[in-house]
């Protein structure tokens, strides 16, 4: 039928076939683009719904699917030389494999992007993950295409296997930090802005950034510390910003034995409440402050604890300093004394007699 049409318009088969396939390409791309615009309209209209995900999957498929369908139909309608038909068939197969692998990759990419939009802190994971997913599916598609074309990849696999072992050994520490960084970003024991301390006796500071190799901390002295992610994954992390920023502090107070505990408790509570009423920065009035006779009986004192809450980790030092000054002023006003350490030295009789002997006069 196509050959008869070429004869009817007085064109050579090669020219007619060229025009025929060019027409098929133009029509398929035009229809595909039109469908793409329609689906894109519905994708934007159904934003932030599961409909957006569905139409986003369909949005990129009309152009390649219609192109392949029209070209395949054209190959079925015309009679081509065996060599040309063989090459065209292989090309169609390769394009089909690419489209087939593109669809599941698109599903995963849309899922990762949706997760990244819901949580801005996950963008450091989703962006590299999207690149990894695309590269993985592209490699799988290329492998299948080459295998079906009769190209043996045994030597390639052997080389890649040996090379992978060598690279893994050479980059052992780097890979350890890389996977530890992935764990920190996924599990999120810390986040930028948190104040953390690494135990035991490790550095402490505000988390500035969690990278793929190291975590950046800013100390109270405004210095930057880079902690390898592998270290972050191994040590105990105390996060002072979780579950929220506020924290409880305790100020130890000692008074002389024999002091009325009720007077001490009332004075400490009044000092804390007055500081809260004065809106001292960082001191929280709720929950209200409390006092307890703890740890209790010291060697020569009664030991109390003034318990209160501050807004954040950085507020504990100025709040404690201010309250200590107010406590000293209040105790001085009410005559409550703080003990000073005293030591009694006991001497045996022989030592006393030795000390009472008159000093020897030097010989002239």
Give me the number of helical elements. Answer: 12
> What is Rg?
40 Å
How far the N terminus sits from the C terminus, by CA atoms, comes to 147 Å
Stretches with pLDDT under 50, minimum 5 residues: none
Q: Please indicate the count of domains.
A: 3
The tally of beta strands, per DSSP, is: 9
Assign the structural class, choosing from mainly alpha, mainly beta, alpha/beta, alpha+beta, or little secondary structure: alpha+beta
In what order do the strands lie side by side in the largest sheet?
Answer: 4-3-2-1-5
Strand content: 15-25%
Write the layout of secondary structure elements.
Layout: H1 2-8, H2 13-45, H3 50-59, H4 62-77, H5 82-118, H6 123-148, H7 154-170, H8 172-187, E1 195-199, E2 204-210, E3 214-218, E4 224-228, H9 229-234, E5 236-239, E6 247-256, H10 261-277, E7 283-284, E8 290-297, E9 301-310, H11 316-334, H12 349-356
Antiparallel strand pairs: 1-2, 1-5, 2-3, 3-4, 6-9, 7-9, 8-9
Helix pairs in contact: 2-3, 2-4, 4-5, 5-6, 10-11
């Amino acid at each position: 039928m196509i050959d008869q049409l070429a004869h009817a318009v007085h064109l050579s088969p090669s020219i007619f076939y060229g025009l025929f396939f060019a027409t098929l390409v133009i029509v398929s791309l035009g229809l595909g683009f039109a469908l793409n615009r329609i689906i894109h309209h519905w994708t934007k209209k159904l934003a932030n719904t599961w409909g957006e995900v569905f139409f986003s999957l369909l949005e990129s498929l009309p152009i390649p699917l219609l192109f392949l369908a029209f070209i395949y139909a054209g190959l079925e309608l015309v009679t081509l030389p065996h060599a040309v038909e063989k090459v065209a068939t292989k090309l169609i197969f390769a394009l089909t494999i690419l489209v087939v692998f593109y669809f599941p990759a698109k599903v995963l990419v849309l899922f990762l992007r949706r997760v990244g939009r819901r949580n801005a802190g996950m963008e450091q994971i989703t962006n590299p993950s999207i690149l990894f997913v695309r590269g993985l599916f592209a490699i799988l598609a290329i492998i299948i295409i080459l295998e079906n074309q009769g190209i043996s990849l045994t030597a390639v696999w052997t080389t890649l296997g040996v090379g992978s072992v060598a690279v893994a050994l050479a980059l052992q520490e780097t890979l350890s930090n890389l996977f530890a960084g992935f764990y920190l970003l996924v599990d999120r024991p810390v986040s930028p802005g948190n104040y953390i301390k690494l135990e035991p006796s490790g550095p402490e500071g505000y988390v500035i950034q969690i990278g793929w190799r190291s975590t950046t901390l800013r100390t109270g002295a405004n210095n930057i510390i880079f902690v390898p992610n592998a270290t972050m994954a191994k040590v105990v992390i105390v996060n002072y910003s979780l579950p929220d920023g506020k924290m409880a502090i305790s100020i130890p107070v000692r008074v002389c034995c024999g002091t009325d505990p009720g007077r001490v408790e009332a004075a400490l509570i009044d000092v804390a409440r007055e500081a809260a009423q004065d809106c001292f920065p960082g001191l929280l009035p709720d929950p209200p402050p409390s006092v307890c006779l703890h740890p209790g009986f010291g060697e020569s004192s009664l030991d109390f604890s003034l318990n209160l809450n501050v807004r954040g980790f950085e507020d504990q030092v100025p709040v404690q300093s201010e309250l200590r000054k107010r406590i000293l002023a209040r105790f001085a006003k009410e005559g409550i004394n703080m003990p000073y350490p005293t030591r009694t030295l006991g001497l045996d009789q022989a030592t006393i007699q030795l000390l009472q002997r008159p000093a020897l006069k030097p010989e002239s």
